[in-house]
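Field notebook, page 411. I keep forgetting to write these up properly, so this time I am using the form the group agreed on. The chain and the ligand, pyridoxal-5'-phosphate, are recorded exactly as supplied. Prediction of the bound pose follows.
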Amino acid sequence: MLRTIPHNQRLNEVRYDIRGPLHARALELEQQGRSIVRLNIGNPGRFGFEAPAHVRQAIADHLRDSEAYCHQQGLVEAREAIAQVHRQRGVAADLQQVYVGNGVSELIDLSLRGLLNSGDEVLVPAPDYPLWTAAVILNDGQPVHYPCPPERQGLPDPDEIERLITPRTRALVVINPNNPNGAVYPLALLRAIAAIAERHRLVVFSDEIYEGLLYDDAQFHPMAPLVQGTLCMTMSGLSKMHRACGYRVGWMTATGRVTAAREYLKSLDLLAALRLCSNVQGQWAIPAALLGPDTHTALCRPGGRLYETRAALLRTVARSRFLSVVAPQGAMYGFVGIDEGQLAEFDDQQFALDLLERKQILIVPGSSFNVPYRNHFRITLLPEAALMERVIVAIDEFIAAIAAGGRRAVA
Ligand SMILES: Cc1ncc(COP(=O)(O)O)c(C=O)c1O
């Protein structure tokens, strides 16, 4: 008799719909010759964006120097550049506090693995970039979501966060600017969150991978300068602002009360050593990206690709009877709400599947980002403005057809 191979049961609690069953179905449809408009993932290289030439050149220039493993925490040159950025912000940091990884993704997992014991709780925003929730679960922790609802422009309420703290709470995750809802946290809010973390001795994980992608008057404030009484782990990388997802380069820096975190930091060093090092060639791009010219701000200003596509999203949604969106202040996504009052038994996952099958448009259902409501979807701002406009009009017409005739009308 054929015995099936069991798997890690905790994976049953984990979802990553950005590349989940909908994405798999899109690939199937493409294999059948259908053309799919894929707006599910923030992958700039797939939309005609390129890494800055000087960043690419830095890798080419050092290819011959990339053949050996490097220090487990990363190349000295790369870590020094990262520490320097922190020092420019008035934060004490040297290269020993920096860890380079194969994308922020690897560091999210590694940093939680080094921290959590079974049943430890981690406060995570809802909506979140779902790897945070997944990595807490896979490292035997318990995610506790704090709400960042559209009614509050996607921002959390510090009192609400504090009420969720229990004796098991170990850490607090902030994603600023937020993926998926584009919220950019005001300074006063960050200060309040930092004070909560200090009061309860929580580790702050501040995921700032979209820090430079800001619209209108939005201002980004790094978390590290605000945290002194506890440990702050700041994360960033090359994937978004520097449009180089495929290089797989991210970093994190431990600042604040590092003296109280010696054992934790030693465990991170061990975990980093167990995977030897992160890919070396990509690390040469870090000094060039951080200390070279700014190539991202213009994308978010009038005439820039992200700015114009965001404007097209806001314009088209404003004309819709069914759609609404809190204008994203940062990052590269729209988190669009659907007024399901006019739609019987609306379900965002089923809606996304129907949209894919009928209109060949791939979006990500809102509930994939760990929110309790099921009337949102996320769309990336990476396509050209004209395509965004066409897609939102098509989605609006699709919803109108559902409203007129029920789901069967479109199935
Ligand atoms: C908020 C956030 N953090 C981390 C990541 C992971 O980025 P990477 O592993 O490419 O550095 C992403 C990717 O979309 C993200 O949106």
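OBSERVATIONS:
- The chain has a mean pLDDT of 95.
- The pocket of pyridoxal-5'-phosphate is lined by residues 42, 103-105, 129, 175, 179, 207, 209, 237, 239, 245, 250 (CB under 6 Å).
FOLLOW-UP: compare against the apo run.
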